[in-house]
Design brief:
mainly alpha, Non-ribosomal Peptide Synthetase Peptidyl Carrier Protein, Chain A, globular
Length: 90
């Protein structure tokens, strides 16, 4: 898991859901941030549009934390998550 929250995810959570930026830590869950199932669907739709991806229903809800959601976004977009990139260095 990344040591920071994905910047686009953080921007969306602050702007669309009025969450305080200081609450957005990699270990925070959507539930802890007060997002209900309808808000998670809305978040999924916004992120799908931002990244031009198809995000299946439940993929975000199934992610354990904001850090894991960032990793998921990286995986879906074909980017290598930060911790995997470091592991692959010679």
């Amino acid at each position: 898991m990344s040591s920071q929250v994905h910047p686009v995810l953080a921007r969306v959570l602050v702007s669309a859901f009025q969450l305080p930026a200081e609450a957005l830590v990699p270990t925070a869950t959507l539930e802890e941030l007060g997002l209900d199932s309808l808000a998670v669907v809305e978040l999924s739709d916004i992120l799908a549009e931002e990244f031009d991806l198809a995000i299946a229903d439940g993929e975000l809800a199934g992610a354990a934390s904001l850090g894991r959601i960032g990793d998921l976004l990286g995986e879906l977009s074909g980017a290598v998550p930060e911790h995997d990139a470091k592991a692959q260095l010679p």
